[in-house]
Amino acid sequence: MNIQQRMASKQLFTDHDANYLEEAAELAHARQRGKALCYEINNLHPDDVEMRKILMKQLFGSMGENVWLEPPIRMSYGTNTSVGDNVYINFNLTVVDDYQVTIGNDVMFGPNVTIAVTNHPVHPQRRKEGAMFALPVVIEDGAWIGSGAIILPGVTIGKGSVIGAGSVVTKDIPANVIAVGNPCRVLREITDHDQEFYYKDMRFDQVEW
Hints:
Elements: H1 3-8, H2 21-42, H3 49-59, E1 62-63, E2 68-69, E3 73-75, E4 81-83, E5 88-89, E6 93-96, E7 101-103, E8 108-109, E9 114-116, E10 118-119, H4 124-128, E11 133-134, E12 137-139, E13 144-145, E14 150-151, E15 156-157, E16 162-163, E17 168-169, E18 177-180, E19 185-189, H5 193-196, E20 197-199, E21 202-203
Parallel strand pairs: 1-4, 2-5, 3-6, 4-7, 5-8, 6-9, 7-12, 8-13, 9-14, 12-15, 13-16, 14-17, 16-18
Antiparallel strand pairs: 10-11, 18-19, 20-21
Helix pairs in contact: 2-3
């Protein structure tokens, strides 16, 4: 199996495999392209929204409509990440996307979120050998990822769920829940109560527009 086939089958791989030097060079070029596009986005004037959109379309593997990004952003490839419609990305999103990252529609990211699909063996001698593995990350429609959250390899976050600020998400989170902590655990379901109250005892029907 080549490098990308090993990734897809959850096998250990290296990005400098001597048996696949041409593919390794292509992957290194793709990573450099992603870093360069992130650099261009991060150094644009804040008013140059149109150029930011053009560069975002080049960076992501696919991108829907009405996607807003607050720079800076850092990605390994960019092309391995797909982004749906109506997505809001706040400052300092970091995506280690050696393999697939899928972001659905109507997803919100707070500042300083990290998504990582790549991991390494635990034993130090095995780590020294330089191999790694990658597992896809999926963030389903309507999820909200709070500030400083870290999403680890292989995690799926269900539709509509909220991940609390500073959480470390090590396992799948079901749909329509609030989950918090390190490691991240379900706190409660999202219910009709949340249709009436937007924060503690603060009611929607008491808001003056």
